[in-house]
Amino acid sequence: MFDDVDLLVCGAGPVGCVVAERAASVLGWRVLVVDRRRHVAGNCHDPVHPSGVRVHRYGPHYFRTNDDALLRYLSRFTEWVPANYEVRSLVRGELLPFPINLTTLERFFGRPLDPTTAGELLDGVRTPVAEPVNSEEYVLGRVGRELYEAFYLGYTRKQWGLHPRDLDPGVCGRVPVRLDRDPRYVGHKHQVMPRDGFTALFGRMLRHRKIRVVLDCPFAEVRGLVRPRRATVYTGPVDEYFGHALGRLPYRSLEFEFVPHAAEFVQPCVQINYPNDFRFTRSVEVKHVTGQRHPHTVVCYETPAATGEPYYPVPRPANRELYARYEELARAETARRRVFFCGRLAQYRYFNTDEVIQEALRCFDTIRRTCTAPAPSPTVRAA
Ligand SMILES: Cc1cc2nc3c(=O)[nH]c(=O)nc-3n(C[C@H](O)[C@H](O)[C@H](O)COP(=O)(O)OP(=O)(O)OC[C@H]3O[C@@H](n4cnc5c(N)ncnc54)[C@H](O)[C@@H]3O)c2cc1C
After folding, report:
1. Which one in 66, 90, 132, 348 has a CA-CA gap of 20 to 30 Å to 233?
2. What confidence tier does 378 reach under pLDDT thresholds 50, 70, 90?
3. The domain 7-46+197-249+314-370 is classified under which CATH number: 3.60.10.10, 1.20.1250.20, 3.40.630.30, 3.40.50.720?
4. Are 356 and 15 in contact (CB under 8 A)?
5. Is the CB–ligand 1 distance for residue 218 below 6 Å?
6. What is the pTM of this model?
7. What is the DSSP annotation of 186-237?
């Protein structure tokens, strides 16, 4: 029954769905998508909790992009609702805006400030570092020790199980520091959520007569069975594909606890960070941004873990080196067998959803350029 597959896709996350949709719609290829989970949309999966409230099963997904064309493409599969991603940090018993902005600085230092005096204040407390080589140096160079210890140090240690000085500068460097009162978590041009959720969005991509989806199906079950005529797109962990031949790539995992409440809202904003208290890092009431109207709400508490599902690649030099060696194997596999490695697990790199979709579109372009002639191998091997 799998004897006419042009493209085999491992993973029904954003990357798998986009590549499958493009291959079926643009090239008319027959696509088989397998996923070991029982749902599509990968980590963007957003089911409805038994209370009736939509939740984000694998942590909150705040969709944002500066790319108009990308938004236009996705708009074929969804309508959008505007979203207000506002985060506060519990510091010294107060919920202060995060990323740090003028209001945060005023409340933290207990005096009125304007952009000029706030800039001068930061100039006075920061520890200049010419070329920061880790996250600690990066943050000290930006905001100084007191703010670093209050907002970053504890959070980073909990999140990664590592000291900021053992992590790349970019880990803490992704978060801006603002000298105005902009309370938004990110500054992107478009900050929106799919009206019916991400699972519906990605599910619609796969609703195509040339696409077949098999869930609850590990790649290992079809790998030796299906020989696609054109190519394979693999979005699972790259080290797993090669049987961990060079060792395991480290990942940070998470545990999620969903707590329902018989109230419309219980938090003042979508996300509260706890840099200095509790085992969990953040509590998320995603209903603030999904646009759902419901008399009840659900708060998700997120606790980092060393083992479990792989969520975040751990960005430090040793891991990058190990990944580089896997990348060599992946390149050879692409050349030899037309297996394309794309996505956050396959490229061992944190991507936001818009960025990973851009990667998927690039991957599709490469496949289109290089794989339009059928592969020479037989379509099906004996099971
Ligand atoms: C906690 C957390 C919060 C995030 N928050 C945001 C956010 O706020 N905004 C944002 O834009 N992005 C966010 N992201 C990033 C977003 O989740 C990713 O960019 C996106 O999901 C990556 O898509 P993907 O297809 O590469 O991988 P995934 O979404 O992980 O999908 C991969 C799929 O492949 C399947 N798979 C893997 N291996 C196999 C195998 N061997 N056999 C069969 N199936 C397999 C998996 O089951 C999974 O369904 C967040 C990520 C995490 C972990």
Report:
1. 66
2. very low
3. 3.40.50.720
4. yes
5. yes
6. 0.94
7. ---SEEEEETT-HHHHHHHHH-STTEEEE-S--HHHHHTTB--SSEEEE-S-
Buried b (16+ CB within 10 A) or exposed e, 354-375: bbbbbbbbebbeebbeebeeeb
Pocket test for ligand 1, best of 37, 256, 289, 344 (most atoms within 8 A of CB): 344
Q: Which amino acid is at 67?
A: D
Residue 375 has pLDDT above 80, yes or no: no
- Distance between CA atoms of 324 and 305, rounded to whole angstroms? 25
Domain boundaries, the chain: 7-46+197-249+314-370, 87-173
Query: Omega of the bond prior to 99 within 30 degrees of 0, cis?
Result: yes
Q: Is 186 in the pocket of ligand 1 (CB under 6 A)?
A: no
**Listed residue (347, 355, 282) closest to 310, CA to CA:** 347
Share of the chain above pLDDT 90, in %: 92
CA–CA distance, 354 with 350 (Å, rounded to integer): 12
Mean of the pLDDT values across residues 62-73? 98
Mean pLDDT of 51-59: 98
Task: Please identify, by atom number, the ligand 1 atom nearest to the C-alpha of residue 254.
Answer: 1
